Backbone:
């Protein structure tokens, strides 16, 4: 694989559709950087989950709020993607609980087990090599990392 070290940064406004825009832009960037299609599809799913989480939980479905995306393809075949928002922050305990949540297999006889809500960070941790969360002032950032060497 011939990776090209590159950097991507763009500001978006929160909305129901913003995750699709972020996904499209990052897919183009990662393709141009030489990242394989299977990895791109997995990272795309991770991004959609993180961006949707910002819109739904940090901004409480409020449109027009800032979401910043910063991605780097590194020479060591690692992709690092930061997704930042300025909404309601998660506590460290909430973040740890979300990433350590266990997958519950839906029971056909128990409708309460059918919910897909709350599974986003589980998906992200399964498809990435690392997920971090940190705050700087009013800015909350999720940092996703993934080795893309094949």
Residues:
């Amino acid at each position: 694989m011939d990776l090209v070290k590159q950097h991507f940064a763009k500001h978006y406004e929160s909305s129901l559709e913003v995750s699709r825009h972020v996904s499209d832009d990052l897919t183009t960037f990662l393709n141009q950087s030489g990242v394989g299609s299977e990895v791109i599809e997995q990272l795309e799913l991770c991004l959609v989950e993180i961006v949707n989480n910002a819109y739904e939980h940090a901004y409480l479905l409020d449109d027009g709020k800032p979401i910043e995306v910063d991605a780097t393809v590194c020479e060591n075949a690692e992709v690092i993607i930061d997704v930042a928002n300025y909404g309601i922050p998660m506590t460290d305990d909430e973040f740890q609980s979300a990433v350590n949540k266990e997958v519950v297999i839906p029971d056909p006889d128990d409708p309460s087990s059918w919910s897909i809500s709350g599974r986003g960070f589980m998906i992200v941790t399964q498809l990435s090599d690392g997920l971090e969360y940190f705050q700087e002032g009013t800015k909350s950032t999720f940092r996703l990392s993934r080795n893309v060497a094949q």
